[in-house]
Amino acid sequence: MKILILAPYPEKEAPSQRFRFEQYLGVLSSKGHQYHLRPFLSDKTWEILYQPGQKLAKITGILLGFLRRFLLMGTLGRYDFIFIHREASPIGPPLFEWIIAKIWRKKIIYDFDDAIWLPNTSEQNKMVASIKWHHKVDSICKWAYKVSAGNQYLAEYARQFNDNVVVNPTTIDTEGMHKPTARPKNETFTIGWTGTHSTMPYLLPILPVLDELHQSYPFKLLTISNQLPDFERSYLEFRKWQKSTEIADLQQMDIGIMPLTDDKWAKGKCGFKALQYMSLRIPALISPVGVNVEIVDDGINGFLCTSDEEWKKALTRFFEDPSLIEQMADACRKKIVDHYSVLSNTENFINLFK
Known about the structure:
Blueprint: E1 2-7, H1 15-18, H2 25-30, E2 34-39, H3 43-48, H4 55-72, E3 81-85, H5 95-103, E4 107-112, H6 126-129, H7 136-143, E5 146-149, H8 152-158, E6 165-167, E7 189-194, H9 207-214, E8 219-225, E9 236-240, H10 246-250, E10 255-258, H11 264-267, H12 272-279, E11 284-286, H13 292-295, E12 302-304, H14 308-320, H15 323-339, H16 342-350
Parallel strand pairs: 1-2, 1-3, 3-4, 4-5, 5-6, 7-8, 7-10, 8-9, 10-11, 11-12
């Protein structure tokens, strides 16, 4: 079977791709399938995309992405399935998806892991926000042979347009990548958060809680991200995300946090931060929004925190009894291995192509 994979970003760079389908590429090969991964953005354009300036280089990179896509349309005859992650092009109408479905009549597996039908404009993408064409998600769902949705909330949306929808959760490679090792005891209790510039605003609402607690308990807030936080705190430690040190950096955390606002966009998220923490035996404190309530079992492998008081109470429990971390560690790891690992989800993923 020959599979063409269309994705927005270069291989091994973007979390949504790495933990949605790239982890399964070896499995596809082992099953005798041939695949070709074709990103829209080149490595060069990806490197500068979210950096300030270089507008001409960014526009040129995007135009070259469209050129590559148009040239690719003439090669579709050789493929049995076209797997599309999020969209074939980051801006404009679903032209390429229409060509694939209506002219070539190819079977599309459409995969997404966010509520991408909703506008979600940040400072970095405001230049193209008006031409993102968010409502194309509906059309692509209609034309798809199958829809691969990251959680039940996303699946319910897709089922308005397609009856053949599969919940395909974001997963962790617990055997090859996220393998916990013995962690040195931190001199200062470390609360951890990891994410990109786009999710960093979710930290802002709990800063007053952390400020208050820091008056009584010594701790640091380790943030691992592609960009420096736009807030300052004496207890803040920033570490730039690097693929080569990702796991080692995560393992500096005593606990991991994932605050969210309770809105339609956040409900579409797939709990990736919690999955990473827990796979490394790190208890997760998260907002009970969307799939998060399925990932964390309150009081067993972490805590679900809604109000400021609940955040204070949960954090204080760890400050006053650090042994709670080790008490929850095995349950954290087991939950991910059993329900959100590549191992547990391989058959589900492979069945997308049947």
